[in-house]
Amino acid sequence: MTTRAATSGTPRWWADAAGAAAVVSLLVVTALWVANRGVQDTLGGGAGALSATGRLTGLLASDLLLLQVLLMARIPLVERAFGQDRLARWHRWTGFGSLHLMLAHIVLIVLGYAAAADANAFAELWDMVVDYPGMLLATAGTVLVVMVAVTSVRAARRRLRYESWHLLHLYAYLGVGLALPHQLWTGADFLVSPLSRVYWWTLYAMSAGAVLVYRLGLPVWRNARHRLTVSRVVPEGPGLTSVYLTGRHLDELPVRAGQFLQWRFLDGPGWTRSHPFSLSATPHTGVLRITVKDLGDGSARVATLAPGTRAFVEGPYGRLTGESYTGGPVLMLACGIGVTPLLALLGELPYGFREATLVYRSRSVADVAFRDELDWLARERGVRVVHLHGPRAGGGSWLPRDLSGPGDVAALRRIAPRIADSQVYVCGPDEWTAAVRAAARGAGVPAGRVHTEQFAW
């Protein structure tokens, strides 16, 4: 199921243009603040300096909040330029940056207003919340944004199920929607300049439009057109299940091997929660396949799906594709369920006979899946399959304990002597993937030839 939309390469200037636009937006905000006597008020000291600095931190916080929305609005141009794993990291960093600036804005503005009125800071804060237009909404929005930020801290994420975290994270949209309007009504930097109003209204419209079009409109349209339905469910191994899906006009769905989609199965309670599952077979006309490991409530229910169950998908997402592959040796390294997108890629990439190597890391021989497909790839396309079993070695190594003697880089060179000339594709848990990437770079693989996709949330 290969289409022009799915196979066209991503222009390199897309990433540069998107990054430049983000930087320019922050410069524009700062320039608007300067134009509204921000520097003079700051240099004047006293209450005016506190308020002026508070205005700047508030403007930057607002800009970053809207950029944060755009980062995860699923805009195809941005997704293809950066990949969702990188966007998720930037989204997190931008979120924490905007939160700190927002808190600084609140403190500085309250202190500045209190100093100007010679009033108690806590009394001034209360008056602002109760009396100023939009401030009650802004307070509620700030509370929601803080809640989302707290649950995004790594220690908190580890204590939450993915489904719970995902539901809480959706409140970020409501928080942004409530926190920002007060500046439309009371913000000096918004009210004083027509140029400022044009800029902010444009940024608001772009952010809201991106969410409506790409998070809501496009998925609804695609699902109405393609109507994905479960065809059959096949056990693949211990806790591992494959789901085959059919639909209409699937040759027009712009998905390719290595990508993943967000899946919802309309089979009863819990259907509203989406889960990221990669395609585990090369997409071809009429059929899609995903393979899911039982890791929680959402993934466990996949094994109980009945034929005929409708699926609702968002995507496709991910840059772990062959769009940059032009030939030559291929090395793929998979850990556990990470083999699924690489198996799909092995079926799609046009490598020569005996030019591809798959390193398949699993806990034991019993955990190896897709034996028949791996045998077919070895026989028909000359793929060399290297199995690595057993517990991992310590010290951040990607190797099993009993094979860690030579070291990560030496072992990689021994497995794939042509690694420095290879395109390297890696999929697995975060720490394991990072260790493989470091070993590949140490073995002489340029950064642009190491392709990874990480699904940690």
From TrEMBL:
Where is the protein found, in the record's own terms?
Membrane
Its needed co-factors are:
FAD
User: Is DNA-binding set as a keyword in this record?
Assistant: no
Major site of localization recorded for this protein = membrane
Q: Which GO terms describe its molecular function?
A: 2 iron, 2 sulfur cluster binding; flavin adenine dinucleotide binding; metal ion binding; oxidoreductase activity
Mind telling me which residue stretches traverse the membrane in this protein? 12-35, 55-73, 93-115, 135-156, 168-186, 198-218
Keywords, in A-Z order: 2Fe-2S, FAD, Flavoprotein, Iron, Iron-sulfur, Membrane, Metal-binding, Oxidoreductase, Transmembrane, Transmembrane helix
Which GO cellular component term is one of those annotated?
Answer: membrane
What SUPFAM superfamilies does the record point to? Ferredoxin reductase-like, C-terminal NADP-linked domain, Riboflavin synthase domain-like
Q: InterPro entries attached here?
A: FAD-bd_FR_type (IPR017927), Fe3_Rdtase_TM_dom (IPR013130), FNR_nucleotide-bd (IPR039261), MRET (IPR050415), OxRdtase_FAD/NAD-bd (IPR001433), Riboflavin_synthase-like_b-brl (IPR017938)
Protein name according to UniProt: Oxidoreductase
Membrane topology (UniProt)? Multi-pass membrane protein
Q: Where is the FAD-binding FR-type domain?
A: 223-323
